[in-house]
Amino acid sequence: MLLSLTTQTREPGIVIVSITGRVALGVEKGQIEDAIFGALKDGVRKIVIDLAHVSYIDSAGVGIIAFCFGKASQAGAQLTAAAADARVKDVFHITRLDQVVTFFPDVDSACASF
User: Fold this and answer.
1) pTM over 0.85
2) DSSP class of residue 9?
3) Maximal CA-CA distance, the chain
């Protein structure tokens, strides 16, 4: 399955970006950046990336999320990741980006962390 994205606002000022499919090198990667940058432009300062339905992520996909994390930090925003399965978390661990991006077991706990 190719990448698809949905965005929802939860509670005051929290945006959830839910990703479904494969996060890999390709044209679809711009969708993630657009969603995160759009939220930042709208003044959102609390963003959760829901990875529950990501079937595959490669190093380029991890790079996209790390880039978005950096942009969010520069804007004074908090960005977290939620609900990643073991395979997805392993890629973040191998690249050591799990030490930069905070992971939560589910979206609710990620929202509660803000």
Assistant:
1) yes
2) E
3) 35
Instruction: Report the chain's terminal Cα–Cα distance, integer Å.
Output: 32
- Out of 19-28, 41-50, 98-107, least confident range: 19-28
Q: Which helix (H) or strand (E) holds 64?
A: helix 59-74
Q: Which pLDDT tens digit goes with each residue over 74-102?
A: 999 999 999 999 999 999 999 999 898 99
Closest CA to 83 of 46, 101, 110: 110
H/E stretch holding 93 reads helix 86-94
Tell me the HSE value of 30 on the side-chain side, using a 13 A CA sphere. Answer: 2
**CB–CB of 20/2 below 8 Å?**
no
The structure tokens listed for 54 are: 């990501």
Q: How far is CA 74 from the centre of its chain?
A: 16
Q: How confident is the model over 10-24, as a mean pLDDT?
A: 91
Measure the CA–CA gap between 63 and 25, rounded to whole angstroms.
Answer: 10
Both structure tokens of 82: 């939620």
